[in-house]
Write a structure and sequence with these properties.
It is built from eleven helices and 15 strands. The chain is an alpha/beta fold and 307 residues long. The chain has a six-stranded mixed sheet with strand order 7-8-9-4-10-11, sandwiched between helices. A hairpin with a 2-residue loop joins strand 13 and strand 14. Helix 3 runs parallel beside helix 5 and helix 4 packs antiparallel against helix 5. The two termini are 32 Å apart.
Length: 307
């Protein structure tokens, strides 16, 4: 059964501006699926979430959540979803416990009724439940926001870049919590700019300029990478980036951590050893390292970006 059905949603914020979201395809999310939307800032992730959460109306297209239309049935939709926006949006002058009690009361619930759903998360907050929410660390704010999104036991949970600005330990804990919620049958849609997090999703949509470039499982996206990929290093990395872009066999070049990744043009028969010698002899690079590597999701995104 499909929990979310999206049909060609479109949203623009001005006549002379390109649409923030322009999904020219139909997308479904199965019940109990952990679905990721990955892309850089400005890709349209937040606008899409705000439409699905009934906070803004689409200009065109439609979507349903658990069979409810996001425009026609927006009041009912709001009772079955949890939404955690990218920015901390709880009440900073209320305590941890007061925030949780307030959000439970909004949905006519009490904390005890659904405490089992948040117990693994709230147990880390409990020693600080009398502290003002605004005084919490970034990781603790994230945990409180997640608890407040879950306290009414939603059928669908939306998390908009929940790990931005939090420490690695809190990032790991969040994804462990999402895996547990998924096991309980909750549908989860999470957006992120971190490509490594997408590996934890059942399927991901790669988004750019308001559109989905592809929607598939991480493993299938990676297996569909159809170019030779090389990792290149030298003593002068900035100059190396510019020099690589002048090599005739190189199709695309971009920085990847402490190396540069390049894809080769179709039919290019150059070997890693040949490229290393060319960089040393023709461009005077020293300590050159070139090796052929397997693609990651980030490489796949960079490859799809120009299609």
């Amino acid at each position: 059964m499909d929990s979310i059905v999206i049909h060609s949603l479109r949203k623009s914020y001005g006549r002379n501006l390109p649409p923030a979201v322009d999904l020219q395809t139909d997308v479904t999310v199965a019940k109990g699926e952990l679905f990721g939307i990955i892309g850089p800032d400005g890709a349209g992730k937040t606008t899409l979430f705000r439409m699905l959460a009934t906070l803004v109306s689409p200009d065109a297209g439609s979507a349903t959540l658990e069979g409810l239309d996001i425009v026609r049935d927006y009041r009912k939709v709001r009772t079955i979803i949890g939404y955690m926006p990218g920015r901390f949006s709880l009440y900073s002058d209320l305590s941890v416990r007061e925030n949780l009690e307030f959000f439970a009361s909004v949905f006519g619930k009490d904390i005890e009724s659904n405490y089992g759903l948040i117990e693994n998360i709230y147990c880390r907050l409990k020693p600080f439940e009398d502290r003002k929410a605004g005084k919490l660390s970034g990781g603790m704010k994230q945990k409180l926001a997640l608890c407040c999104s879950l306290i009414h036991s939603p059928a669908v949970l939306f998390l908009d870049e929940p790990t931005t600005g939090v420490d690695p330990s809190s990032r790991r804990e969040l994804w462990e919590n999402l895996a547990q919620l998924k096991e309980q049958g909750m549908t989860i849609v999470v957006s992120t700019a971190y490509m490594d997090e997408a590996d934890r999703c059942d399927r991901v949509a790669m988004m750019k300029s308001g559109r989905f470039l592809t929607v598939d499982s991480p493993s299938r996206i990676i297996s569909g990478f159809d170019k030779r990929l090389l990792s290149v290093r030298s003593d002068e990395m900035f100059r190396l980036l510019n020099d690589l872009r002048t090599v005739s066999a190189v199709d695309k070049c971009y920085t990847f951590g402490d190396t540069h990744h390049i894809t080769l043009r179709p039919g290019a028969g150059i070997s890693p050893e040949d490229l290393g010698r060319e960089l040393a002899s023709e461009f005077s690079h020293r300590n050159v390292s070139v090796r052929e590597i397997d693609a990651t999701l980030e490489d796949c995104y960079m490859n799809l970006e120009d299609k």
